[in-house]
Amino acid sequence: MSNWAVGHSARFAAAASEHGMRDYTSMFGHGDTDRHWQDGWGMPWQNLEGYRRSSPLSAADGLTTPLLITAGEQDWRCPVAHAEALYATAIRRGVAAELLVYPAEHHAWQSRPSRVRDRMARITAWFHRFGGPADDIGAPRSPAE
């Protein structure tokens, strides 16, 4: 949803996309998600416009939000090619973007605690870079924050 939201709104100072998808049509046939696509929109060749309209790619012209994109190199549910394409889209639009591909990682990010810590530190730093609070993660905040 982050990928879709940043193309449809400029309200965010920054965003982080994890396990992202850019083009739903090309997701059909990957991993274990075919039933999701089929049950929601039918087969791609039956409802190409529905797939296209719902894909983050359809709003690429509206992408202005700085975007941190993370992916697992061996994520078969959300192939790394989608993260790479989203990164290329952001860069070609002149949007601040960073792509982190974690080697040997899958969709769940559960193989190495050190990578979980690294990912969380990088995401936190990304939001701090674009105006997020500089306090500790988990510190109490006022309702205004």
Structural account:
The chain is of the alpha/beta class and 145 residues long. The protein has a single domain (2-129), classed as Alpha/Beta hydrolase fold, catalytic domain (Rossmann fold). The chain has helices at 2-8, 24-27, 34-41, 48-54, 80-92, 113-129, and strands spanning 15-18, 67-72, 97-102. The chain has a 3-stranded parallel β-sheet with strand order 1-2-3, with helices on both faces. It is globular. The two termini are 22 Å apart. The mean pLDDT is 86.
Structural descriptors:
39% helix; 3-stranded parallel sheet; alpha/beta; 3 strands; Rossmann fold
Strand content: 5-15%
Annotated CATH homologous superfamily: Alpha/Beta hydrolase fold, catalytic domain
CATH class assignment: Alpha Beta
Radius of gyration: 16 Å
